[in-house]
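Researcher: Next entry: Glucose-6-phosphate isomerase (Halomonas daqiaonensis).
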Amino acid sequence: MPHPTIDQREAWQALAAHAREMRSTHLSELFAGALHRHAAFTRQAAGLTLDLSKQRWRDETLERLLDLAREAEVPEAIRGLLAGERVNRSEDRPALHTALRLPPEASLVVEGEDLVPSVHKTLERMATMVERFHAGQWRGATGRAIRDVVNLGVGGSDLGPLMVTHALADYRPQGVHTIEVHFASTMDGSQLADYLARLNPETTLFVLSSKSFTTIDTLSNARTAQDWLMGRLMGDNREEGVDAELVMRQHFIGVSASPEKMNEWGIAEDHQLAFWEWVGGRYSLWGAIGLPIALMVGMPHFRELLAGAHAMDRHFSEAPLVDNLPVLLALAGIWNVNFLDIRAHSILPYDGRLEFFAAYLEQLEMESNGKSVTHDGRGVGYSTCPVLWGQLGPNAQHAFYQLLHQGTQAVECDFIAPLLRYDEVEDSATRAHLKSQHRLALANCFAQSRVLMLGDEAIEDDGPRPAHKRYRGNQPSSTLLLDRLTPATLGSLIALYEHKVFVQARIWDINPFDQWGVELGKKIAGETQRILEHQADIADMDDSTRGLIEAVWAAERNA
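Model: Predicted structure:
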């Protein structure tokens, strides 16, 4: 007989009954007379402070949610994840992104093999490459030092490195040969076309990042880059001995779990970086996929990023559930999605360096937990991942905050900001102005979460107001404060959300480490591409797709 699903268990049923009482409770009521609510619902770890006091819950709610986590065996699941058990059940393998940030003196034996030496062997190979670039010793086919590196990847091979390099741009190493890092992910070639128009082929190198080395988006861009380099370098420099093999060797690095396919493509063996089948793409920035990060900030700062993530891993492993930041953040999400029926979630950083953090989390959360089938193949009878989106908070205030304040859609929000910034600015007058601007951003961050919580009660009573100037409040939010935005605190912040996703998946009884919906889209797109290119029979297509394909053929005939 199949085991009961999570929504049939005692803790879930108790929460459902409790939620019926709480739905009519306004956040302003929860704060009324509660002088120490902030302290009661705030936790700190690994350079982060998590304030959950603006969630629509009280002590009893959290206790019942912790009961749910225990009933779902979350502590056992955490141990299994970090020990290398096969938590990715549909693909029958472990999910060991946390192994990528273990220190060299650690040991993690999984199925008879200690993974740490191979992880650090790849990190050392990365370090050697980065040192060559920063010393100006990595030279193109014509002998000129490489200055521009273009990362060709998509999904986790793009979003993670893009987000982190932007966030840590202040941490470029001084006194080294400057490397500019660029990212091209779109399969239509629009990003790449811009780079090819501006960059010098003699000083440009491409990093092909693809776990399978079969991703059509990445390989399409790679073939275009290859043709550009061959045409521009070999045509003008044949007398100097520039040939195809030299171009491939000096202008391409491959990052993949498939060395055979990198070899077939022509990537020189000593210019290949490995990652493993037990690392999902959206969890992969901690290893070789992070090469663009290391090129931008240097290996010491890259290692600090890993150390910050490892600090959060240790906290996740060791802290009791009631003080465990990833667990608490996950439970807040479970409460909102499953019991308060809040199925939208917005990520709102108040620091321009975190411009791409919301986009990164969109993939991390929705690709991981956008599932509707349990581990044993049954359809779920409850909501899983909410629709997640976001933008820099100061910009969003002039865009979709109108919906947050006065729309009909309930939305959970995460406000994220560093406590301190601009201490390193040397000029005292400029430093004072920039610090003032940072305080302005913090003031807006705190004010917006307060108004979303209290609504009209946050406004001084100035008499009756018309309906279009009324604000209901009662929108729940979490606030995450970083001591400073550093490689270490960014690492712990990313790891916090990774582990939050895992805890929620455990409670929902779904697999956060596969993405069969993505794979289906790739397969059907490949079939459709072949029809478009070869004008194959489209009789079996649906009427809409058939009409769209015919429109393309007609446009090409008339062009």
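Model: Note for the record: The chain has a mean pLDDT of 93.
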